[in-house]
Amino acid sequence: MSYKTPYHLFRSLHRLKQWLNRRFTVLGKGIIICLLISAIVGIDTRLTMAYQVFAFLLAALAIAILFSLRFAARLVVTRTLPRFGTVGVKLQYSVLVENQTDKIQKGLSLKENFADSCPSYTEFSHAVSTNKYRFTSISYLYYRWRKLVNRRTKATTKVFDIPTIQAHGKTKVVMEIEPTARGIIELTGMTIARPDPFALFNACKTITLKQSLLILPKRYQVPRLELPGMRKAQSGSTSLAAAVGDSEEFVSLRDYRPGDPLRKIHWRSWAKTNKPIVREEREQFFVRHALILDNFDSNEYSEIMEETVSVAASFACDFQTQESLLDLMFVADQAYCFTAGRGLGTTEKMLEILAAVKTCQDTSFESLTTTVMNRVSLLSGCICILMRWDEARKKLIRNLQEFNIPTLVLVVTDQQESIDDFDLGKIHSLHLGKIQEGLMKLKIEN
Question: What is the DSSP string of 175-232?
Fold first, then answer.
């Protein structure tokens, strides 16, 4: 079934709404409402004088629009963005506005422009096709349209006033956006608006200024948790730790013995003594934990997936990577394992990776199980953040328990039943809307 007609209708209405919000002031929108009311009431000019109100308002609006047809001010805008923002945390940044004319510019306002939030026809038709009922109403189509638009809208902003700018002068405006979704926000430019003398209609000048901003996942407060067996690691070579999970610490020098590897020869001592000398080392182990992220879902987007990523980001931030290693494991087009801690990678980099994680729709959960079990001999403990509780995920937890790996399992769910009674490990359910409360109840017993 084709949905092109409602799609183009919704798209046109969306753009019309954006144009009205950009062009008309609050007073101007009130005039439009009064204009419509007077037009309806004053249809019969013999019974009411409302048509005179209609004529007056229409004339005022027409004059306001004529005043705003031309906006020739030469203005240059420079935006200074931070490296990234966080979902739900208002982000402030500075914008420098330069007046390149010989006139004072006052009464101007500035608004950020984002990339088009309208979905493609393919996205819209796919979302609508999930309707399980035979009849599809226009209200249902619009509901799906609004849901897609809201999902693609990664941030909100408002209009900010620009202080008076002297001729050939500059001024700074502190702007603010509120990120609503993780990922990359595409900023396309800025719109400078100048109202007419009646403050009804804006003359607008759009300045192209393309930049992007990475938005990190929402994070929750998590209690301090220590998996059983967690110990402070001693100093050593982190490069070797990254490869095999342990390092070797220098102990002493000794004479060369047949079979000693070349990499252990101490060349400076050989040069002094004129005979081969090797370094004697002892093994030293690092504490290494895995943060296992379940991103397997049949839907491209789900609230459970977003909350799962947020919980993973919360643990990644709270984890003490100065004393141990943390492996983030998930599957996308292939299996990924990113290690942070002890100079290998930073928590900041791990959050950037989580900001870009998408659902895995074409691979089974067993691929993540295989990735984890290939590294199980290196792990001291695991934090598993799952999207559901089925046999495939139970199998992963059983495998970890068979290797005596201390495991904390968190299942993000929209169901109300408890799943905390699984006998092979510590299983906790986090319910949508009550994630923070669920996290604060966590406690690990030795």
Answer: EEEEE-SSEEEEEEEEEEEEE-TTSSBEEEEEEEEEEEEEEEPP---------TT--P
Same domain? For 272 and 349 the reply is no
| pTM of the predicted structure, to 2 decimals | 0.81
Backbone region of residue 233 per phi and psi (left: phi > 0; alpha: psi in -120 to 50; beta: other values): beta
Do 48 and 23 share a structural domain?
yes
Return the pLDDT at 73. Answer: 85
Q: Residue 81, CB half-sphere, CA atoms under 13 Å: how many?
A: 16
Percent of residues, the chain, with pLDDT higher than 70: 87
Q: Phi first, then psi: what are they for 287, rounded to 5°? A: -80, 130
Two tokens at 283? 């093994």
CA distances from 368 to 3, 39, 314, 350, 395 (A): 38, 65, 21, 18, 11
Which residues, 6+ apart, have CB-to-CB distance to 116 below 8 Å? none
In a shared domain, residues 74 and 141: yes
Side chain identity, residue 108: L
